[in-house]
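Good morning,

Attaching, inline, the backbone tokens for the sequence recovery test we're adding to the shared suite. The designed sequence is right after.
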């Protein structure tokens, strides 16, 4: 993503091999002088120097520009993110002040004679953070996730588990955890978290195919408790419990999921989960590890 829990105990190994994987897969320019990190606390660096406003709203502006690096973010979108329906009359002037503050920090990082406007550009109807030549962790994550998914689809689960683990190792916490989020950043951060959970589910599926059910049992147990309405994680947990000889606990996990779904959403588990329960009850050989 061993006798450690995949995705947790392998972090040091994953981070050491991450840059090597980028070089092989040509994911990004590792030697670039600019980096943007959004999968955790916001970090924007130019020439290895942080260009991070201290105040909350300027950080919001920088976060939205960084999330859309290489694309124009309109003035109206920035104002909507900062103030929603309560934009003051001075909103445009205040926004320009925030942009100026970021440019001053970029200029200091670039050094004498360098124009910060080449990185933070003014467009006809907005602003553009032009960091396309640098490394952006969200883009690296998306590319690794796609590569890992493709490996799984062609049956190469060992490679899939490794690549998906590399993707997950890019995360340093919740997306934009230290940034105030308005009506635009909030759903963007939620979408990133959902993508992270999807990649984690795929990596766990590959681990099960590889017979690592005992190794990932603790991780699955914690995840099912954290996401009690997630049927996919519960299905993986039930399978791992059954394969490790915990048939009773596997059935308990199904009933716990059912109770959560009925109580919270008023629905029964999917047909797939119900078939999995019946397979556990009948000790269906199809549940055994390959």
């Amino acid at each position: 993503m061993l006798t450690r829990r995949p995705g947790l105990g392998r972090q040091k190994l994953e981070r050491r091999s991450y840059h090597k994987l980028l070089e092989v897969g040509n994911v990004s320019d590792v030697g670039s002088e600019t980096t943007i990190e959004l999968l955790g606390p916001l970090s924007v660096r130019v020439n290895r120097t942080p260009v991070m406003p201290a105040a909350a709203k300027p950080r919001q502006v920088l976060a939205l520009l960084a999330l859309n690096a290489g694309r124009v973010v309109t003035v109206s979108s920035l104002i909507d993110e900062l103030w929603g329906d309560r934009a003051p009359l001075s909103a445009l002037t205040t926004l320009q002040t925030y942009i100026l503050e970021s440019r001053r920090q970029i200029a200091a990082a670039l050094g004498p004679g360098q124009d910060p406007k080449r990185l933070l550009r003014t467009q006809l109807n907005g602003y553009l953070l032009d960091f396309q030549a640098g490394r952006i962790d969200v883009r690296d994550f998306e590319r690794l996730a796609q590569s890992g998914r493709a490996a799984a689809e062609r049956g190469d689960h060992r490679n899939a588990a490794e690549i998906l683990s590399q993707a997950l190792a890019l995360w340093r916490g919740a997306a934009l955890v230290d940034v105030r989020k308005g009506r635009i950043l909030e759903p963007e951060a939620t979408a990133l978290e959902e993508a992270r959970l999807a990649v984690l589910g795929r990596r766990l599926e590959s681990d099960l195919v590889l017979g690592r059910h005992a190794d990932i049992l603790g991780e699955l147990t914690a995840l099912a408790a954290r996401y009690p309405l997630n049927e996919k994680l519960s299905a993986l947990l039930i399978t791992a419990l059954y394969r490790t000889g915990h048939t009773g606990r596997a059935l308990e996990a199904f009933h716990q999921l059912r109770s959560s779904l009925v109580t919270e959403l008023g629905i029964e588990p999917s047909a797939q989960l119900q078939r999995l329960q019946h397979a556990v009850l009948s000790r269906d050989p199809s549940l055994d590890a390959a």
